């Protein structure tokens, strides 16, 4: 997608990239109201594969990304969490329920790399029995188009499902999958006034507020601790899903043994 540029009166400009599902319009409006003489350029991305590359290749100064991300050489400030949903073809059995658990999707074909949704990977039958057919990398838009054609399912943040919604798909909240988190990133060696200003905008600070570099680092450390807690919660959720799966298998084996004994 092309870069949507807002020219600056004094020649200064901040370029901000963002992944699908993120809508930075409100922040851009605040920026234009607060800094009318400094331009801001939107750099929309097709998928998350570019969210770090766009910073290293010079296309953007900052990037609104979806965690996790390789944060070596980057400053990262998590902003908010997103709830996961499963997107399935219209008429799929999930249309009969209000929400599904990840274990209920064990027999489905995921149109994403299994590592993208480790909670599904750990319960998926096609992964366990080695019958899975790998799918090539694709953008969320293309993946959801294939869902509509009946090729499989995807599990994505609600904001992504909304952005690429279609008449031939349905979506439902899915439990047992960790929330995702949107964060603001920029190169560690790219400190400056415009970057600090945009941090202030996304954090909701007033135009008069200022922050020291020490407070930025303190906020980043606190954000890392919150992210670690989220990761630990996701790990526990995946372990619980595996335990449920093993319990179901044990119950089926036991039931099968009783039937053979009656014969």
From TrEMBL:
Entry keywords, A to Z: DNA-binding, Transcription, Transcription regulation
Record's keyword annotation contains Transcription: yes
TM region positions: none
Basic and acidic residues composition bias: residue spans: 218-250
Tagged with keyword Transcription regulation: yes
InterPro entries: LysR_subst-bd
Signal peptide residue numbers: none
Disordered: region residues: 209-263
Basic residues composition bias: residue spans: 251-263
Domain LysR substrate-binding: from-to ranges: 12-204
CDD domains according to UniProt: PBP2_LTTR_aromatics_like
Entry's family note: Belongs to the LysR transcriptional regulatory family.
Name of the protein: LysR family substrate-binding domain-containing protein
Lineage: Bacteria, Bacillati, Actinomycetota, Actinomycetes, Micrococcales
């Amino acid at each position: 997608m092309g870069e949507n540029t807002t020219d600056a009166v004094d020649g200064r400009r901040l370029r901000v990239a963002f992944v699908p599902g993120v809508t930075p319009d409100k922040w851009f409006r605040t920026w234009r109201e607060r800094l009318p003489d400094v331009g801001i350029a939107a750099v929309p991305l097709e998928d998350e594969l570019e969210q770090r590359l766009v910073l290293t290749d010079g296309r953007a100064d900052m990037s609104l990304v979806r965690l996790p991300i390789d944060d070596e050489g980057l400053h990262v400030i998590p902003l908010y969490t997103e709830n996961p949903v499963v997107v399935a073809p219209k008429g799929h059995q999930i249309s009969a329920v209000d929400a599904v658990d990840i274990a209920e999707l064990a027999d489905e074909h995921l149109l994403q790399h299994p590592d993208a949704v480790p909670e599904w990977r750990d319960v998926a039958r096609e992964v366990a029995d080695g019958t899975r057919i790998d799918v090539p990398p694709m953008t969320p838009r293309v993946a959801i188009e294939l869902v509509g054609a009946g090729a499989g399912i995807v599990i994505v943040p609600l904001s992504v499902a909304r952005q690429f919604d279609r008449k031939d798909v349905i979506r439902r909240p899915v439990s047992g999958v960790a929330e995702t988190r949107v964060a603001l990133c920029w190169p560690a060696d790219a400190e400056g006034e415009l970057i600090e200003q945009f941090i202030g905008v996304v954090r909701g600070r007033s135009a008069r507020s200022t922050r020291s570099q020490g407070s930025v680092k303190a906020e980043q450390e606190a954000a890392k601790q919150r992210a670690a807690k989220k990761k630990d919660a996701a790990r526990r959720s995946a372990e619980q899903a595996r335990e449920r799966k093993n319990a179901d298998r044990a119950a089926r084996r036991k039931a099968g043994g009783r039937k053979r004994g009656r014969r």
